[in-house]
Write a structure and sequence with these properties.
With 228 residues, the protein is α+β, with helices and mostly antiparallel strands. The chain is 43% helix and 17% strand. It has helices at 3-10, 38-43, 60-68, 80-94, 97-103, 144-154, 168-171, 185-200, 202-218, 222-227; strands spanning 18-23, 29-35, 46-48, 52-54, 71-76, 110-114, 122-125, 134-137. Strands 2-1-5 form a three-stranded antiparallel β-sheet. It is elongated.
Length: 228
């Protein structure tokens, strides 16, 4: 499925009461909602100027949901009461990701990268801000800190917010000292891009860490292997 498919699906929406569902690229259910008028409600999530994207008037959490959405389905009902019953049934049975996030008072953590920094780094936040040069990953229901630690364990990226000379992370080969210009910005961004790809595909990160652990063990560096 692609955004082009989604755009075509939006053209088929009826002016009827019903329930709608959003799905991501992997076919996972993201959200279930009900509407008095499916066409009007669903289109309120999107902007069409000129390409299809999330409506900036909605919250950042909803915008992120729409960015993930590539496919939608809907079921028409005879009344709003029927739509409410069906919506509740879907939510209880299927536990859609964003129904849980938007319902809970608890704010789940995100890992983010701020590209306004000369040498961007990964950080954790529970607050989304409208800033075009920040890229968010998540939300994570658990394990965000462990995932961040794993990223820094394998990818030698800048970890300190401010540093004017090589620090302890450089000395233990966990950073390439961009603060001291010991790596070009171009090369640094290449490593950052690899790390972001691994963040989107944790299985890649796990395999890389396993290889690193085996390599260290083969070289009898057991202390470092244990850390991995």
């Amino acid at each position: 499925m692609t955004k082009e498919n989604l755009e075509n699906e939006l053209k088929t929406l009826p002016n009827s009461t019903g329930v709608y569902q959003y799905f991501n690229q992997e076919g996972k259910l993201l959200y279930v909602g009900k509407a008095k008028n499916l066409k009007n409600r669903i289109k309120s999530y999107f902007a069409f100027t000129p390409n299809l994207h999330a409506n900036p008037r909605n919250s950042l959490r909803i915008q992120k949901m729409i960015e993930e959405t590539v496919h939608l389905e809907f079921i028409t009902t005879n009344s709003e009461a029927d739509a409410l019953i069906l919506e509740n049934s879907f939510i209880k049975q299927l536990h859609p990701k964003y129904n849980i996030l938007l319902r809970d008072d608890k704010t789940y953590p995100y890992i983010y990268v701020d590209f306004e920094e000369e040498f961007p780094r990964f950080e954790i936040t529970r607050k989304l801000v409208k800033k075009s040069k920040i890229k968010y990953f998540g939300p994570f229901f658990k394990g965000a800190r462990e995932l961040l630690d794993a990223l820094y364990l394998y990818y030698p990226l800048k970890q300190k917010a401010s540093c004017k000379s090589p620090c302890i992370f450089y000395q233990i080969s966990r950073c390439l000292a961009p603060c001291d210009k010991r790596i070009s910005k171009e090369k640094y961004l290449e490593i950052l891009d690899e790390a972001m790809h691994a963040l989107l595909n944790p299985s890649i990160l796990i395999k890389n860490l396993e290889k690193q652990m085996i390599h260290l063990a083969q070289n009898e560096n057991y202390e470092e292997a244990a850390k991995v």
